[in-house]
Amino acid sequence: MPSTLALRDCLPADWRSGRFLGRVLTAQGPSPILVEGGVAYDMSAFAPTLSLLADRMPVPASAGIPLGPLDALDLPILSPVDLQCVKACGVTFALSAIERVIEERARGDATAAAGIRERLEERVGGSIRAVVPGSPEAESLKQALIEDGLWSQYLEVAIGPDAEVFTKAPVLATVGWGAQIGVRSDSTWNNPEPEIVLLVDSRGTAIGATLGNDVNLRDFEGRSALLLGKAKDNNASCSLGPLVRLFDEDFTIDDVRRAEVALTIEGPEGYRLEGCSSMSQISRDPLELVRQTLSEHDYPDGFALFLGTLFAPVQDRDEAGRGFTHKVGDVVEISTPRLGRLVNTVVTSKEAAPWDLGIGALLTNLAGRGLLGQQVTEQVR
């Protein structure tokens, strides 16, 4: 993390007029905050967890204790979710399906990717951009690709009726703005995935959005889709932040639908990569992804939902034809004007700060602060 980078540098351009939820680490322990009028308020006495605070929105900032202006906040920023499940949707951009098929066909071997990419793009071309998932046209394209021997499980979730929805990280395992982000030490082909993440309350309503990095191991998942858990869920492999921007009259789901999500990677050896994910090209609407996530599954503490990315890095780093993979020390920045900048520094998952605040430890902390009791009783009712 660059030592000169401050939270004020990473806030949305209009942060003084928006309303935000987040979490900070106080001397007493993790606390949810509400930001209104540019001022942060500690809401822990009103709602001891971010999941409970999200369920109680809208709530006036006067229910909390003022901590001061957000841009002068002198407290560590944590991931802006706590008890929510962390879910993710994959291959939601039809174009990104091409890269997933390449991973699968190359069996995780980056050197074999270029030839497969050329053949697949030549066959599919622009047709995959125009097809509506689950439509008769999608079925016709599927049959044509099957006949060509190019069909894949990734194309099934890209243009078929059912979206891919998986669990990205355990409850409380995500890291926040400024934290180290982890890549498995035995991975040799991997990349960040810059995404917008919806915050959904226990009633199934999307109440806001934040930025996320769904770190992906292309070699592991490419060898077998059954390795998705190892490819996606490792120590510090999921970052969120810096804050959740709440939907209101000025910031709506339409802002998510048309967002341009930028990615910059600065390597320790001087390497630089820039990319962009345009949400206008998503194949499935964000609220349709929420609906499919909720299909026959309850989330009593709500959930955070990664919406997927258009971005897949192919810019060579060390050797021609091997594309991109992370190095320890990479600084990854994901940004969009209405949500700010999420910045993390890459380490291996073994070297990342250990995850030691689980559900039991959080409940013990909150009980010791006298923040449970009535709060829990009201939630049960």
UniProtKB/TrEMBL annotation:
Residues 171-347 form the Fumarylacetoacetase-like C-terminal domain. Transmembrane segments: none annotated. Keywords: Hydrolase, Metal-binding. GO terms for molecular function: hydrolase activity. InterPro entries: FAH, Fumarylacetoacetase-like_C, Fumarylacetoacetase_C_sf. PANTHER family: 2-DEHYDRO-3-DEOXY-D-ARABINONATE DEHYDRATASE, FUMARYLACETOACETATE HYDROLASE DOMAIN-CONTAINING PROTEIN 2A-RELATED. This is Fumarylacetoacetate hydrolase family protein. It comes from Novosphingobium soli.
